[in-house]
């Protein structure tokens, strides 16, 4: 009878441990998705928005600006 009681205690501890582990995993997942939505979820995926200006400056350096040509 004592053996059965110990097995039942072990089973309940294992179930509790698995439940806690699953809850922690869900919390980490939710935290990951929240972070993804606030930082990488932006338009352009976090890339700088001023690429066109830099390209124009490079074109001016390489080929001269249209006003001076």
UniProtKB/TrEMBL annotation:
Protein name as catalogued: Uncharacterized protein LOC117574836
Organism: Drosophila albomicans
């Amino acid at each position: 009878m004592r053996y059965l009681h110990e097995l039942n205690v072990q089973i309940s501890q294992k179930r509790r441990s698995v439940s806690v582990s699953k809850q922690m995993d869900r919390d980490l997942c939710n935290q990951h998705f929240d972070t993804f939505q606030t930082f990488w979820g932006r338009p352009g995926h976090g890339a700088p928005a001023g690429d066109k200006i830099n390209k124009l400056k490079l074109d001016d350096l390489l080929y001269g600006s249209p006003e001076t040509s």
